Amino acid sequence: MRRFSRTARGLWVVCAGLLLLGSLSAAARSGGATGMVKETTERMLSALTQQRSEIERNPARIYELVNKILVPRFDFEEITREAVGEYWPKASESQKRALIRGFREMLIRTYAKALLNYSGQEIRYLSENPGRSTTVVFARVREPGAKDPILIKYKLHKRGGSWKVYDVIIDGISLVLNYRGNFKSQIGRQGIDETIRILND
After folding, report:
1. What's residue 89's pLDDT?
2. At what angle do helices 175-199 and 76-84 cross, to 10 degrees?
3. pLDDT in tens, 30-57
4. Could you tell me the CATH number of the domain that includes residue 108?
5. Which of 68, 97, 105, 189 is 20 to 30 A removed from 60 (C-alpha atoms)?
6. Which domain holds residue 179?
């Protein structure tokens, strides 16, 4: 979706890419939501290691791995609903399905490209603040050569008995709220159907 901001795309690259490519601290070895992050990390790293040669020959293979390992860990319906914001109730059921599908695929494409160019960012999962049906996992990311770390909060909730990410806040900037501004501007100018078309570009 070329008309969406680079900042919004950059947030997704950081939050999704580093969710799976982190260097886990002791906190991440616990159960619950943080344990889910650890398990996802191990699966992704194992797949990348085992299939590196195949991925180099056929970069499209990375999309299959993302769909298999990453996608089930995110609640794309909730992410899309919250990002679309005030326009969500105005969308028809078919438009809602198309928005979810298009937004999910755009994020997956962005993430997969970032994963192919991963450059060694280090992430440490610090703690978890659990609630009854929601939880927040706190993490710290350090870019290679950077002096100060980036603070990240992963917001998760229980869906179907599993923890799923529904927002990520990076240095106080919410992935969902960042995209909400983009959706509001795009739909306000050109409508829902054109926004769906752009998502699928």
Report:
1. 97
2. 90
3. 457 777 777 776 777 677 778 878 888 8
4. 3.10.450.710
5. 97
6. 6-199
The total of structural domains in the chain comes to 1
- Encoded tokens for 17: 């890419």
179: in domain: yes
CA pair distance 126, 57, nearest whole angstrom:
37
Spatial CA neighbour of 65 closest among 38, 47, 45, 40: 47
Q: What is the DSSP string of 23-73?
A: ---GGGGSSHHHHHHHHHHHHHHHHHHHTHHHHHH-TTHHHHHIIIIIGGG
The answer as to whether 65 is a domain residue is yes
The encoded tokens of residue 169 equal 């806040």
pLDDT of residue 99: 97
Is the pTM higher than 0.85?
no
Dmax over CA atoms of the chain, in Å, equals 48
Structure tokens at 137: 């996992």
